[in-house]
Structures are given as C-alpha cells and as structure tokens.
Amino acid sequence: MHPAGSPRPGAGVPHGKAIDRFVRRVRRLSTLCGFVAAALIAAGVVVVCEMVFVRYVLNMNTIWQTDFVTYCLVAATFVGSPFVLMTRGHVNVDVLPHYAGPRVRRWLAVFASALTIAFCIVIAVLTFTFWKEAWDNKWVSDTMWRARLWIPYASMPVGLGLLTLQSVADLLALLTGREPPFGITKERPL
User: Fold this and answer.
1) Which position among 87, 95, 104, 115 has the lowest Cβ density within 10 Å, counted as fewest Cβ atoms?
2) Contact criterion met (CB below 8 Å) for 170 and 113
3) pTM for this predicted structure
C-alpha cells in the first residue's frame, strides 16, 4: 500500500511485480552509472592537477594526461546519461505539457518516450559499429600515448544501451501509472 492506504500505481496491471522488479533493477543500474560517471570526472580532475604539477613545477612533458582526461569526460557523459534521465536532470522544455490536459500530456509523454527509445537504439547501433571498427582495425590514438581507441569508444554503445534501458523503464512506469507524465502531478491554472 502507498501512503494514505491507496494501492500502488500499476498494482492491477498484469505482470506488475515483474515490471516493478525490472524498473527497480534498471534504476539501480542507472544509479551505479551515476557513481561511475562521478568517479570518471574525479579521475579527470586528479589527472589535470597531476598534469599541471608535472608540467609547471617539474618542467616535464606530459604525454598521456590530455587524452586520458578527454576520454574520461566523454565516458562520463555517455555512462552517466541513464542517471541524468532517471533523475530528470536534463534540460527540459515543458511549457506544452504544463498547459495540456492530463490526457494530451500522457500521449505527449508516450510519444516523447517512444521517440527517445528509437533515437537511443539507432545511435547505440551506430556507435557499436564505430566501436567494432576500432576493435577490428586495432585503432590507436594519433598522440604519443598511442591509446587503443576501442577502450574509450566502448563507453558510447555501453552508455547508450543503458540509456535505452532507462528509457524503456521510464516508458513502462508511465504506461502502468507508476510515474506521472513529465513528472507533473498537479494541474497548472491557465
């Protein structure tokens, strides 16, 4: 039971417990992605500090630091995207949903979710083929570090695959009444 003795949204939906488990597991995975993204950003910050020290205090060349920081920030962006979607931390223009009626808002949210899933799948497939090409052809960076590019490129299909999972979980939560459309719980007066 939910607060005030009301039943849990989606309780009467067939396979409700399976959907609850799926949504809960995807959210845990998205939360883990948020921690991984934060750790990647922190690693990038530490390496930038190390690079400044090595370059300006020790007067030595830096070889791998710039590439490492760039790859960390790109990976944090892709791997952290499911967490951002889950927490609604992205930029969201929601003027239309706020002034639309509940029924229109729901259909608009379903349309936006379906479009998001389609976009994520297409981009995940394209980045996977890009990653596979780097793997098959043993691509390395053009810098002195000669980093194997399949390693940083892996964050793109992995992050987009996880973003697709989070999008599917959000759509299921919307369709079964577990989440309100666009997170809007009350009507805004005109």
Assistant:
1) 95
2) yes
3) 0.84
Runs of H (alpha helix) within the chain: 16-52, 65-86, 95-99, 102-136, 150-153, 155-175
Closest by CA to 71, choosing from 160, 145, 162, is 145
C-alpha 29/C-alpha 12 separation (Å) is: 26
Q: Is residue 3 part of a domain?
A: no
- 140 strand-pairing partners: 148
Tally of domains within the chain: 1
Task: Name 162's Cβ contacts closer than 8 Å, sequence gap at least 6.
Answer: 29, 30, 33, 79, 81, 82
C-alpha of 172 from chain center: 17
d(CA 120, CA 169): 13
Per the model's pLDDT, the better-predicted residue between 96 and 170 turns out to be 170
Q: Cα-flanking dihedrals φ and ψ of residue 141, to 5°?
A: -70, 160
Reported as a single tens digit per residue, the pLDDT across 75-132 is 999 999 999 999 988 777 777 777 778 888 899 999 999 999 999 999 999 999 999 9
Let me know if residue 8 belongs to a domain: no
The pLDDT score that the predictor gives to residue 2 is: 47
Residue 46: C-alpha distances to residues 26, 40, 70, 144 (Å): 30, 10, 13, 21
Domain residues for the domain of 66 are 14-183
